[in-house]
Structures
1.
Amino acid sequence: MRFNFRKNFKMQYHFNDIEAKWQKYWAENETFKASNNSDKPKYYVLDMFPYPSGAGLHVGHPLGYIASDIYARYKRHKGFNVLHPQGYDSFGLPAEQYAIQTGQHPAITTETNIATYRRQLDQIGFSFDWSREVRTSNPDYYKWTQWIFIQLFESYYCNNENKAKDINELVSIFSSEGNANVNVACDDDIEIFSAETWNAKSSEAQQKILLQYRLTYLAETEVNWCPALGTVLANDEIVNGVSERGGHTVVRKKMTQWSMRISAYAERLLQGLDTIDWTDALKETQRNWIGKSVGASVTFHVNGHDDRIDVFTTRPDTIFGVSFMTLAPEHDLVSKITTVEQKAAVEAYIEKTAKRSERDRMADVKTISGVFTGAYAEHPFSKEPIPIWIGDYVLASYGTGAVMAVPCGDQRDYDFAKHFNIEIPNIFDGIDISEEAFASKDNVKIANSDFLNGMNYKKATKRAIYELEQLGQGEGKTNYRLRDAVFSRQRYWGEPFPVYYVNGMPQMIEAKHLPIQLPEVEKYLPTEEGEPPLGRADVWAWDTNTNTVVANDKVNNETVFPLELNTMPGWAGSSWYFFRYMEEANRDGVFASEDALKYWENVDLYIGGAEHATGHLLYARFWVKLLKDRGFVNVEEPFKKLINQGMILGTSAIIYRVSGTEKYVSKGLIGDYGVEEIRVDVNMVNASDEIDIEALKKWQPQYANAEFILEDGKYMVGREVEKMSKRWFNVVNPDDICSQYGADSLRLYEMFLGPLEQYKPWNTAGITGVHGFLKKLWKLYVGENGVNVTDVEPTKDNLKTLHKTIKKVQEDIENFSFNTSVSTFMIAVNELGKQKCTSKAVLEPLLILISPYAPHIAEELYSQLGSSESISTAVFPKFDESHLVESNKNYPISFNGKMRFTLELPMDMSKDDIEKTVMAHEKTIAQLDGREPKKVIVVPGKIVNIVG
RNA sequence: GCUCAAGUGGCGGAAUUGGUAGACGCGUUGGAUUCAAAAUCCAAUUUCUUCGGAAGUGUGGGUUCGAUUCCCACCUUGAGUACCA
């Protein structure tokens, strides 16, 4: 008896033992280590690497990793040399804020968190090549982030050649011919100088000018300052006018900061989207963010001044409809051109708008406000005077901060004109503008517009630009919404800049002296003077003799200089990490060796969240283009194909407290009770929405002596689908799922939930379905007396099931439709079970099909079938159509398109014979009930439809 | 406001080129096994029905022999974005 029990025990599916065994095997044998030398074609599968937070992983996090792991394993079966690495984006705000609260060094908390992540990831059985792991906060790694920063500093962007080039080439142009004829990306307000003037300038003055051309530059710019976080933020880090992290207010402030001249790459970033396989939604988001608009720049002379106002317009064809101009309140000219009479009103208005935060201005788009400056501009063609107003509907940060207002053609201008009783000339032939502006470009001819009369939009635009060029008062122009990205952060836990200052001018530290390591500080807060945390470091100065970081008191501004106090933003390290993984060994040499870069090229499949659309995914593309231009990498785009996995949501559990009491009423009995909804830990609720009252009583003290009003002896909870979060008590930990059901169950269930890209709720109850499937799978191979797989010839049905499954699974994986292959496996195992299949010729290939999804059980059964190698080395089974050929077809017979019954007929039956057989059938006669059919449609092999 | 995506049983979802709507799983119901429970197995499960059938994929139209699938309008939900000149 005892012996039988033990024997029986051994024959059961013990997932915990099996999974631990194979995880150990993979680690010890380095099963998934990728080689940079292989005859196989390469394939690079990458996940967006995680920020290791203190909370660890919940079941929502691994979704994308499971999908990419399935794909990576599939590609290995298909004969590819697969690179599938993982690492950590380990610089960031949470570790720093924790450090501020506790004094604990962020490096220590980061280390601890990484250990937790690694344990959690390992238990899910991913096929990562951990030998290539990267951590952005490691000096070995950020050495090269600093190095790339230097490359950006040493580059300018040539618009003629459309690429970044060495800044020294620009310097030699300046010294030989000045800057009058260069066509390069630069600041807007550049002074024109000759070679003589340039050569006569001091080195410091030259450096100052060069900063206006470099691809990373130091400049006083208006930045988004977040007082609560004590740092500046990039545009993509602000959502609805508040900080993405924490939701704090953000104000505009002028500060000297490092910026990245990403605007130089606007057109290439836009064009590149057509060459990559990303979702349309994501491409559209990036297109909107880049915000290309084609139009013209027009210059207006200000009457009585030497000044000119440049505007950008997408509608130069409407130039004769201009009846006023509007400047942003922050526009430089405002103070200069305002007349004495209007001075008080203008200043009051500016003061009022300055107080309003960006968010208020955005929220309140309906209130029309503005004030007349008293000044007039001259219309370029009619020479009529045009009143110049200021108004906060014009943004200083877009275009030139000034618009030519055409009230008949733009609703905002129209509203403004109506509000202030400004004239609204109509330049559209036969269009009524008494109620609203006419903003369309189509089906209209221009009128009251001198030489543009009678033309359509296209023609008039061309002509207007031509005439403006003749006057020297305008030209065709393309404008981009994309702004340069602020690159300084006033934080501790980020990459230090490889920069020191001589007389206030930034100097790069030579690459061979990198990395410049983060200094120690006693507190992680800004200094009393408001300097960033690095301002607290005592050893933070650069000695140009020894080329080392030395104590601050050695600063003499002759040989020892102060170092930069800002650090780099979170996206610095993540903009190039995919290249670092390519390098196997000797990583100190270069950021990635030439051979490795040549072999792996770029990421074939990238999986991660859609929230990075305008941040990481844009910046990474920008840096890759720069590295390509400067000859360091061979590719123009980092990620060939990209998939955004949807979020897994939680299913919160709700109990109902009768208001003012300690009584809790079951969901079905709420009736007329006044109740409050209270969320409780979902892990106490079973598949039937019944809560474990004993567990609840122990969970929190207020429930220990509470009274529960039950229905049918049970307490039923309400359910709500919402984001998985500690505060809703709906977080499910993968550790619990793995120990209770196993990693293979977790992997299958995450895929089974629904389409990868879709948002979908997690409900632990459903996991018994896939877990039951794995048990059935096990039983198909292992009976009470051990493995019951034989060398018997497979039956026709066995082969049909197998090949149907091969076809479907292969198609599913290639379409990233992982949820449906899980169903397919279930169907296959159900069928083979019914067929009592024991044939190795069928059961072994089936394991290979399942192994990407449930690798542990597949490895175990594969080895029990007698293989000594890992199943990951097995070749994907070949699909053979011949096993699916049928001799009969069960035809659906429909009447007016509605299926009424089915009829089994031979596959090779002719169209006429099918029709005859069907029409003679008793059910057809009954359906027709004496009516004469008007038409009979027969599609052989598909359907019969009788109309009438 | 604009752009995009999506609406299918009690629930997650399937139907890949227009051709048997609801695969697969959860839950529910009934049964077998068990002293009992767990586990396992079997059956049923869109709705209505006079048990012959009939209706049915957000709503209303259209194209078609035939529409969850294509077209038009509308409703709802979600995401992104916004005085962008």
2.
Amino acid sequence: MLTDRQRMILNAIVDDYIRSAEPVGSRSISKRSDVGFSPATIRNEMSDLEELGFLEQPHTSAGRVPSIKGYRYYVDHLVHFGGESPDDVLKFRSYFAERMTEREQILQQAANILANMTSYTSIALGPESVNHSLKHFQLVPLNAETAVAIVVTSTGHVENRMIPLPPGVSVTDLEKTVNILNAKLTGIPMMRVTSKLYSEIGDELSRYVDHYEQVMSMLEHSLPAGDEHEHRVFLGGATNMLTQPEFKDVDKVKTILDLLDETPTLSKILSPTQSGIQVRIGTENEHAAINDCSVITATYAVNGQSLGTIGILGPTRMDYAKVIGLLDVVSRDMAALLSRWY
Amino acid sequence: MLTDRQRMILNAIVDDYIRSAEPVGSRSISKRSDVGFSPATIRNEMSDLEELGFLEQPHTSAGRVPSIKGYRYYVDHLVHFGGESPDDVLKFRSYFAERMTEREQILQQAANILANMTSYTSIALGPESVNHSLKHFQLVPLNAETAVAIVVTSTGHVENRMIPLPPGVSVTDLEKTVNILNAKLTGIPMMRVTSKLYSEIGDELSRYVDHYEQVMSMLEHSLPAGDEHEHRVFLGGATNMLTQPEFKDVDKVKTILDLLDETPTLSKILSPTQSGIQVRIGTENEHAAINDCSVITATYAVNGQSLGTIGILGPTRMDYAKVIGLLDVVSRDMAALLSRWY
DNA sequence: GTTAGCACTCAATGTCGTCGAGTGCTAATC
DNA sequence: GATTAGCACTCGACGACATTGAGTGCTAAC
């Protein structure tokens, strides 16, 4: 479809634009050491590339800027990532190792480090708890009226909530209840815990425990509801958006930052449609507010089972090579770390 | 110090400026229904007020703007808050009641609602856990190498962390350990738990449990370290900063938003030097980055014991009356809600 | 096929004059 | 003596305009 020279020029233009954020002209391309043509020749090629839809001109007497299609071609055919940034990889690994204290924070840390290293915004989706199973259930009474219900899943995830204690239920009844639950529900997938509670625990409870109905209602409130099995979302470097010249307009940036505050929207933006690395450029993103942003996502998986996604949000003029290379490493490293618990 | 008329005029100027964000001139003050003087008279008074340091002039032919001293006088002597905004109070209470599901989220919700209602940024400092005592300790083994350690405090706060299990320690030993800890440490203030662990639990453990040293080391990692008893910080409406005309400069706003990402700094900014409501205007704030912001804080207390702080960060040109009134109500309501657990 | 040369375009930048909101002073008025 | 009308003055905001220069497209020469 494109001649070798066109590809080379397109590549040079995208590279230049990514660095400078300014429309690139024929002269500056011609001056590059890897290009041996005069500005006039470059101009002719640029004109062709524009006609083909790979480049755009902000106005008549300005240089060219890559179009969405141009970026797409660049990402699909021109950029070569991988072994070329061992520095970044080392840097990431040393940061990451240093901060890896708490497991719950792996994702938060990864997002922060990525944001730092790229100067873009980073988003991480945690593993869905849908696939976890119940490991342990506990009720800790705080006083006569309130208790804390704690649920531990097979992956070490801990959820807790405050619940009112039904009046008249004795401490021994509570203990019996907890024992029955642990005996019967341990190992059951979280998704099916609530239904199992009714189908199998109900009878058992009614036999051994007084105030059966109140206890059941209490238990129902103690367990995570269905809609809480969602991805957990971690955000890093949200304010990096402000450093990008394309977002110097306060209103535009406000729209995006507000978006970043909405967990469900974030989750939607990031959700991959395929495993591995995925690049969505500009209007390829469904959400209109980020139509001049690009999103690069990488899924991480253990034993072939996809656990979550980590991604970078930046301007369409993004350093694709660097980000893709980094995300590749990060997703693998995270999978390796998480494999301990899955 | 100031004549009645000067006070009235200063009040009018601050009011106007808070609403318009633009230097206010003598004419616009003269036109207000509650002021019966000609622009010339106002001008003379304004000139005096400027000489006294309550007003400033951006440039010769512009109107006047309140100085820090002017705001200070306004807050101390002119603004009357309290009964005058029952609408806001009702609005807040209805929002708050609606969202009050999870206790851990009280502060987050309060911060969000406040930010929403004021269009400023809201920060809430949670109760320090220093004063809590241990309620329950639990170890949940996930597999042969890892376990989850869970600590519940007397206030229902749950902390959990992933720890490696020392090799060779049996499940029964773990159970014994947990039982001893719960028997000996329940009711002990969190601050003294670690020292108590060595002074009293050590001997006991060595008598009943194998691999005593490893278990002790494991327990040490299981308990929250001293530096984790800090305030927890919740932030609401950080992006509201972007809507204020004084922060239309991207760089300035970036400095502030970056600040808001640093929990310790936030905590320092908000920490009150006295109980009740406190207003810090502009350079009265120690942190240079917010020298043209004002911070209004309210402490909330149960039984005379201060638990935490909730505050608002906005431009010096802030609606002090509204914010102070709201914070007063919010801090009381929060105290009432939290009193259930303290 | 490539490139030098040249006319052309157009945003960015700078200069200048106008406008108007606002001040400060003085003299008239209450 | 306090207040106010009147007026000259200041200075940023804004629009009109000319200038500049980076960049293009086209044509003709290489």
